[in-house]
């Protein structure tokens, strides 16, 4: 597979912070770090948009998905309020991560802390076509919780 190029521009608040990087050779996601100026407390039940200190140019035909880090979620109840979050190819602003604290204790985000992960994925061209009927499937119209498992 031919690699794509993801152009990143470090912002002034991102000086000294790691740019997105994979932590292991087999990692699917790039870790995102907090570019907060000072420690930022997220109280239980609260949401804070955490800056990451960079902007980027995603190639046309791709998106970036921002996802929680499993360690933060399982140990502290910290996750994204919109998981996964989508960054469109035409967005050029600072990457921000909307964290929510589902834990029972205050959570402190420190400068440089790894707070989320980002995957860059292809987006297929899709044509929407209105039809009168849809093909039949064994599941049919049965909704949530009805996949048979």
What's the number of extended β-strand segments? 11
The helix content is under 10%
CA-based shape? globular
Number of helices: 1
Largest sheet: 4 strands, antiparallel
CATH names the topology as Deoxyuridine 5'-Triphosphate Nucleotidohydrolase, Chain A
For the record, what CATH class applies? Mainly Beta
Poorly predicted tracts of residues: none
What's the structural domain tally?
1
Lateral strand order in the biggest sheet: 2-11-6-8
The SS-based structural class is mainly beta
- H/E element sequence: EEEEEEHEEEEE
Radius of gyration: 19 Å
- Cα separation of the termini: 35 Å
Structure write-up:
The protein has one domain (7-122): Deoxyuridine triphosphatase (dUTPase) (Deoxyuridine 5'-Triphosphate Nucleotidohydrolase, Chain A, Distorted Sandwich). With 149 residues, the chain is mostly beta strands. It has one helix and eleven strands. The protein has a four-stranded antiparallel β-sheet.
Summary keywords:
149 residues, four-stranded antiparallel beta sheet, Deoxyuridine 5'-Triphosphate Nucleotidohydrolase, Chain A, 11 strands, three-stranded antiparallel beta sheet, single chain, mainly beta, globular
Secondary structure layout plus pairing:
Layout: E1 7-10, E2 30-33, E3 40-42, E4 47-51, E5 54-57, E6 62-68, H1 70-76, E7 78-80, E8 85-87, E9 96-101, E10 107-109, E11 114-122
Antiparallel strand pairs: 1-5, 2-11, 3-10, 4-9, 6-8, 6-11, 7-9
